Structure formats: C-alpha cells, structure tokens
C-alpha cells in the first residue's frame, strides 16, 4: 500500500466524545508553517474527522469580512455513514458545513451544520462549492441526497443562515433549508446530481443558476434556474444537453454583462477525443423571448487543447479562462486555456501546458484572477511529492509566465496536506486560501493559507 493510499484509507482511531473534547472544534489553529523563501504556507486548521469534518471535496467562499466557508464530505455525526462506509476506507460521518474566522493571531473553525446523510443508508451528501447570495447567506448544492428514489438521490440546492441571535456555543447550528430537490430518476427532464466543481451564480433579481451532471432525456446534464415563488422555489431547465457533439456533464455557468451564460462540458464535442467520450466544449446560452439558445464556441481537441475542463471564469474584457484535466500537448497533461473575443468570433489559445494530469480525485476547479490579471489555480497531482501544487500565471507582453508557488505534501509527515481542492481564494492583501482533501496531522485534510 502506498503512503497516499494509507492516508486515504485511514480513519480516526479515537472515540467521538474524547475527540470532541480534545479538539473542541473551535481552537486556534495556526499549527504549521512551511517556509519557501519569502513565501509561507500556514495550516489554519487540520481536520480531525470529528465535528469539524473530514475530506473536503470542493472549494471555499469568502465574505467581505474575510471569513472562510466550506464543507467536508465526511466527519460530523459518527452515527451517519457507518453501515455504508464505516469499515470501507473512509471516516464515518456524512459531512460538515463550516466557517473559519480569524481570531487574534490564529484562526477558529466553527461547524455551522452537520449533514445527517441521505436515504435509509445514511449515505454522504457530497456537498459542493458554496456561494454567498445577495442576502449575505450561504447557498450550496448536494451532489447526492434529496427526495429522489434512486439509490443515492439526485441531489439538491440548499441555503444556510445564521441564528437570529448570537449563538451561546460554537456548536450552535445554523438554519439549514433545502430550496429544491432534483427529481432525477422520477423525472429525468428535471436534472440530477448538480455539478460539485462550481458554485451557484445569481442574477440581479436574485435568481439562482447552476448545472447538473446528469438528467434530461439523454442523461447528459442540464443548465437550470431557480426562482423564488411564494414561500418556495420553482426550477426551470434552461437547456438539456443531448450528449455526443452537443456535449454532456456541464461544469457550472457564469454570466456576462448582457445576461448571457457561459460554461463548459467535461465530455462530448469531438467524440474521437479521449476514450471516445469527447474532451468537452465551451458554450454560450443566450436568452430570448422563446427561451435560451445554445451556441458552441469551441470544441476541445485531443493532444492540442486538453480536455475535461473545470468551470470557466470571465475577466472584465470578456476573455474566458479554464483549466483542463488532461489530453494536452505535453505528455497528455492538463492545460490552462484562454478564449478571447475577436472580430465577432472567438480565438482559443493554450497559455500553459502541464506534463501531468491535473486531477487525481475531484476537479478540475476554476481558476482565480486577481486585480492585476494574474491567474491562480491548483492541481491535485504533480509537484515535488506528486500530491498537488498551487500555481500562478502572470500576463506580459511576451505571453504568460508560469510559477509553481507551492508543492503540497512536502512538509514533514505531510502535515501541510495533499490533494488540494477548489478554486484558490484571494484576500485584499493578496494572501491565498484553500483546502486539501488528504494528509494533514490526522490524514483527513487541511485549511491552508499561502502568503506571497
């Protein structure tokens, strides 16, 4: 068994009560600093697998005060997930929604909500990326769970809000409300299993937009809208993918200033790419009185562009950027790509090619751009320990300059974490924040800060 397999298959060995008392969940957690010249990676919190969670599988979001919010796939309620997975290589528990807040010279992690699991077997919900809505509360998705009668559930969209008064305990839960349960197996047109890589997005009216991995008649995924309706929400499918050259498995959407939606599909397009499933495509959805019209902007090509792209981002000039998993020109590794408006059309270019795949587990994730136009991203693979890395791409007159900022898994005992997850977050000072799925002092992931 490799060290990575051991980390992934190990589970906490102490009893729940003793562990909660020991970690108290909300301790100050500046426990590790790894120095890279003038650059520093600090572990703000090592997950323990108890009430603080275990194995983050998506990214975080940040509020205006600099507080961080995220979720884990496991940990939390140890009575959940025992029958299904308790002896099968993962910690018990069905996940935790958490907040990390700066306090003095350290950081405090508070659990906001402990997921109870889904269906009769208490399977994990696998929550995805989080977004802060127009009202300041948290919105997110569960990949599994909900009221669908399938074996795992078709997932749902939820909202979490703080208690109306200050909690008397750091363990006081937030209010958790399911806004919409996807019907999946009951009604395939409805969509199923919302995409975990990308957070939800909102229009100016507060309507919610996202994508599902599956659903519609060909089970190829949908782009959907949720509108507040009375005391609930109404879902509309804006577009159902047909698979093949039309694409399938969309990974989130983003708006332009005119109200058009842009996104990528992980698969489809050129079905001769990859293993015959296609390497995906970039598309635009434009609204009209008769509905939404899809236009394919680019089809990824084997050995040239890369394939299976993570969610795209858009800059102020209208350029689109993304990170692919593999199928690129350098040893079939991943790529960073740019799409630029040009004379009424679009120009696609690869701005960096990796020599290895960028995904070992979940992902690829979106890139992040700072005010100067620099791009930041993570890879689950590669780096000095092959445990993933944080990178930067800086624009210049001669093109883009690539810098590998930090290699995960290189601290003694891998206490810095490995397999980073989610799009990096930037604060006003230029510090970068993120999560790892594995390693750390208890082997179940970390919250980290990188200081340039």
Give the SSE map.
Blueprint: H1 3-9, H2 16-23, E1 32-36, E2 39-46, E3 61-62, E4 68-72, H3 82-85, E5 96-103, E6 106-114, E7 127-132, E8 138-142, E9 156-161, E10 175-181, E11 192-194, E12 201-202, E13 208-214, E14 222-229, E15 232-240, E16 248-255, E17 261-267, E18 281-288, E19 291-299, E20 307-309, E21 313-314, E22 320-326, E23 335-342, E24 345-353, E25 368-369, E26 375-379, E27 389-396, E28 399-407, E29 418-426, E30 432-438, E31 446-451
Antiparallel strand pairs: 1-2, 2-31, 3-4, 4-5, 5-6, 7-8, 8-9, 9-10, 11-13, 12-13, 13-14, 14-15, 16-17, 17-18, 18-19, 20-22, 21-22, 22-23, 23-24, 25-26, 26-27, 27-28, 29-30, 30-31
Shape: globular
Number of strands: 31
Provide the number of structural domains.
1
Computed CA radius of gyration, to the nearest angstrom:
21 Å
CATH architectural label = 6 Propeller
Uncertain segments: 1-37, 83-87
Could you say what the CATH topology is called?
Answer: Neuraminidase
Q: Please, what is the average pLDDT?
A: 87
Approximate helicity band = under 10%
How would a textbook summarize the main sheet? Answer: 5 strands, antiparallel
- The span between the termini is 36 Å
CATH class descriptor: Mainly Beta
Side-by-side strand order of the widest sheet: 1-2-31-30-29
SS element count, helices: 3
């Amino acid at each position: 068994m490799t060290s990575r397999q051991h980390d992934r298959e190990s589970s906490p060995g102490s009893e729940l009560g003793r562990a909660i008392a020991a970690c108290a969940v909300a301790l100050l957690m500046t426990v590790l600093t790894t120095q890279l010249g003038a650059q520093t990676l600090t572990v703000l919190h090592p997950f323990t697998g108890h009430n603080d969670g275990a194995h983050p599988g998506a990214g975080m979001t940040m509020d205006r005060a600099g507080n961080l919010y995220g979720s884990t796939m496991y940990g939390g309620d140890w009575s959940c997930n025992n029958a299904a997975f308790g002896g099968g290589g993962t910690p018990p528990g069905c996940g935790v929604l958490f907040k990390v807040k700066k306090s003095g010279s350290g950081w405090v992690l508070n659990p906001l909500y402990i997921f109870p699991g889904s269906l009769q077997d208490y399977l994990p919900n696998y929550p995805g990326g989080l977004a802060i809505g127009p009202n300041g509360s948290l919105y997110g998705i569960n990949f599994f769970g909900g009221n669908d009668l399938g074996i795992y559930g078709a997932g749902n969209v939820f909202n979490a809000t703080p208690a109306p008064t200050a909690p008397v305990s750091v363990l006081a839960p937030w209010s958790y409300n399911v806004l919409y349960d996807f019907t999946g197996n009951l009604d395939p047109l409805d969509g199923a299993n919302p995409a975990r890589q990308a957070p939800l997005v909102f229009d100016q009216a507060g309507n919610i937009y996202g994508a599902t991995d599956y659903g519609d008649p060909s089970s190829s995924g949908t782009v959907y809208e949720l509108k507040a309706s009375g005391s609930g929400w109404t879902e509309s499918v804006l577009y159902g993918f047909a698979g093949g050259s039309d694409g399938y498995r969309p990974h989130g959407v983003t708006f332009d200033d005119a109200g058009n939606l842009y996104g990528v599909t992980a698969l489809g397009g050129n079905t001769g790419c990859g293993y015959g499933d296609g390497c995906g495509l970039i598309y635009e959805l434009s609204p009209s009185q008769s509905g939404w019209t899809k236009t394919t902007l680019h089809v990824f090509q084997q050995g040239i562009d890369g394939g299976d792209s993570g969610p795209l981002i858009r800059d102020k000039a209208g350029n689109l950027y993304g990170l692919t998993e593999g199928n690129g020109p350098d040893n079939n590794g991943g790529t960073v790509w740019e799409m630029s408006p040009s004379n009424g059309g679009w120009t696609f270019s690869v701005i960096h090619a990796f020599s290895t795949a960028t995904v070992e587990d979940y992902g690829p994730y979106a890139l992040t751009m700072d005010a100067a136009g620099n791009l930041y991203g993570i890879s689950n693979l590669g780096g000095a320990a092959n445990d993933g890395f944080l990178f930067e791409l800086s624009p210049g007159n001669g093109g883009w300059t690539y810098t590998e900022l930090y290699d995960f898994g290189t601290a003694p005992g891998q206490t810095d974490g490995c397999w980073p997850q989610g799009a990096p977050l930037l604060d006003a000072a230029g510090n970068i924040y993120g999560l790892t799925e594995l390693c750390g002092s208890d082997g179940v992931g970390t919250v980290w800060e990188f200081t340039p």
